[in-house]
Amino acid sequence: MMSMLKKIAVSAVLAAVSSLSVLAPVHAQIRVEVSGVGSNQIPIAIAGFTDEALTPQQVTSIIKDDLNRSGYFRLIDTNVVLNENAAINFGDWKSKGADALVVGSVQSLSDGRFDVRYKLFDTLKSAALAGFSVSAPPGNIRLTAHRIADDIYEKLTGVRGVFSTRIAYVTKAGSEYRLEIADADGEGTKIALRSAEPIISPSWSPDGTKVAYVSFESRKPVIWVQNLITGERTIIANFKGSNSAPSWSADGSKLAVALSRDGQTQIFTVSANGSNLQKLTSSSGIDTEPQFSADGQSIYFLSDRSGGPQIYRISTAGGEAKRVTFSGTYNITPRISPDGKTLAYISRRDGKFQLYVMDLASGQEQRLSDTTKDESPSFSPNGRYIMYATESGRRGSLAVVSVDGKVKQKLTVQAGDIREPTWGPFMK
């Protein structure tokens, strides 16, 4: 595992998703283990979709896995098949303990696509809540099921679902490093980049079509942006010294980066095409790991200017940086929730590197992880979950925890280390 101290030095739309064919598929998938449950689980029954055996993957199984993994639903067993036009005996479903019911169907179309239809019912109110129809090619059945699960999640919780989003991470198998892209459930893994040299700090563009990262393929850290649709790669920062820790602004027009071109590593901003470099900090310490705030008006970053690594905030217009973390002597890797209210970071206390969150209004902290070698936190786009890297059996693995700490997931691969996770945005 890359030590935190070393890391400080080194880091100093459906159509869009389906068009990622330029990426090479991977056969080794991530295994997900879930523990814990959310508060006030919603009991829901998901009937089998009629004729779903026609599709490459069973739609209802994917929906069930998604909802179960979220921790906010309790699945009611059902052995029935019901399409979206079936007459619903609401009293029968209420007696089985289901507050909600999902039904649907699959129809094979003449052009090779499938028409997938679904409907969601509120059994307590005996009324339909939602439903839609999607014509999808065979390769998009899993994505279609994720979209249905997203719709169910949003209608029943009031929060947008993230099952159809993607994640990026770095794996190392033998001497090869790979930047991989996968669905949020770890399926559908594809390779964006292979290298004999390390790849670190991947960061999604706000529109989900590009990933910025640091590659050592030139035997030094260089920041690249890769278009995931075309495969085109562009160098954003290749200055003297270290070029590290790219982070996108919310509008996608800029990246915050950490550069040592002038000696000590400091924070800069640069346009998304690599032009218009501007220096933001000029301290006597090392400033790195920048992250734009949700409103784009400030940047959170790591600095040892106070004698040890702590998190600071500075306006994007420049000026005086203000310290944010005060508990503990070692706080690194700031990440901001999509609503701008919560700071996630890694803190070393009692020799353990663990995931913490802070309410920025009150300053109240909460430890979310039980593991001891955590790094690289990343919020889900709906702000309800945080993915981070940790260590399991001396190998890197990923973990996901809900922001209230109640739902935990562990994601592992059969071979190799898995590190540096970043959760992609909602697709437009």
Summarize the structure.
With about 425 residues, the protein is mainly beta. It is built from 5 helices and 31 strands. It has helices at about 5-10, 15-20, 60-70, 90-95, 140-155; strands at about 25, 30-35, 40-45, 75, 100-110, 115-120, 125-135, 165-175, 175-185, 190-195, 200-205, 210-215, 220-225, 235, 245-250, 255-260, 265-270, 280, 285-290, 300-305, 310-315, 320-325, 330-335, 340-350, 350-360, 365, 375-380, 385-390, 395-400, 410, 415-425.
SSE topology:
Elements: H1 4-10, H2 14-18, E1 24-25, E2 31-35, E3 42-46, H3 59-70, E4 73-76, H4 90-95, E5 100-108, E6 114-122, E7 127-136, H5 141-157, E8 166-173, E9 176-183, E10 190-195, E11 199-204, E12 210-215, E13 222-227, E14 233-237, E15 243-248, E16 254-259, E17 266-271, E18 278-279, E19 287-292, E20 298-303, E21 310-315, E22 322-323, E23 331-336, E24 342-349, E25 352-359, E26 365-367, E27 375-379, E28 385-392, E29 395-402, E30 408-412, E31 417-423
Parallel strand pairs: 3-4, 3-5
Antiparallel strand pairs: 1-10, 2-30, 5-6, 6-7, 8-9, 8-31, 9-10, 11-12, 12-13, 13-14, 15-16, 16-17, 17-18, 19-20, 20-21, 21-22, 23-24, 24-25, 25-26, 27-28, 28-29, 29-30
Function: Part of the Tol-Pal system, which plays a role in outer membrane invagination during cell division and is important for maintaining outer membrane integrity.
Subunit structure: The Tol-Pal system is composed of five core proteins: the inner membrane proteins TolA, TolQ and TolR, the periplasmic protein TolB and the outer membrane protein Pal. They form a network linking the inner and outer membranes and the peptidoglycan layer.
Family: Belongs to the TolB family.
